[in-house]
Amino acid sequence: MARLCRMLIADAPEEDPRLRPRHLDSSALDTPSLALANAARETLRMGDVVEHMLILQHEVLHGKLGQDKEVRRLDDDVDVLYTAIKLYLAQIQKEDLGEEDSRRWAEIIEMALNLEQAGDIIERMTGDVAASPTRRGARSHRRAGGAGRAARAAGGEPAPEPVGIPVGRSHQRQAPAPFQASFPHSGPALRPRTRRSPASAERAEH
């Protein structure tokens, strides 16, 4: 019985790539708790779309082409779901809501708004990255470099030496000569002068 219930409740796979509201049943508006549950499920779908946008943005950052267009399309889907959720919640009679349902109503609309804004930010950042001249130039440079290496490998040519500082004879750094102290010639070595005592001086005089 539980398996049958899961099969009946499980979401059907989406055939249309464009998202449309699925859980916003207008007949449930007379039962606020059920209508809030429907709005919460639709908000979870928004979260799934935003998560997919983040994955595609990561691929764009790593140079995968064409994913920025898919991000724009998904952002349009997020906007569609947000508008539908907002209008659906507006149809619920708030005076019929208790304290708990009122708090839940506010949480759902706030979460939907945050997801819509997150989708806009992801779409804008992804577009900026994809349109960046530096990003396009880096991709072209990598493709050209890879094609050149493949052509050289196919022709048996050795890979070019990396460009660096020349190390030829004229550019080699000369090691300094060992230090040699030189002093002027001072003749015979000088003996240290010793100090004589008074007794020794008297004997020398006599």
From TrEMBL:
<feature type="region of interest" description="Disordered">
    <location>
        <begin position="129"/>
        <end position="206"/>
    </location>
</feature>
<keyword id="KW-0813">Transport</keyword>
<dbReference type="Pfam" id="PF01895">
    <property type="entry name" value="PhoU"/>
</dbReference>
<dbReference type="InterPro" id="IPR038078">
    <property type="entry name" value="PhoU-like_sf"/>
</dbReference>
<feature type="domain" description="PhoU">
    <location>
        <begin position="44"/>
        <end position="125"/>
    </location>
</feature>
<protein>
    <submittedName>
        <fullName>Sodium-dependent inorganic phosphate (Pi) transporter</fullName>
    </submittedName>
</protein>
<dbReference type="GO" id="GO:0006817">
    <property type="term" value="P:phosphate ion transport"/>
</dbReference>
<keyword id="KW-0592">Phosphate transport</keyword>
<dbReference type="InterPro" id="IPR026022">
    <property type="entry name" value="PhoU_dom"/>
</dbReference>
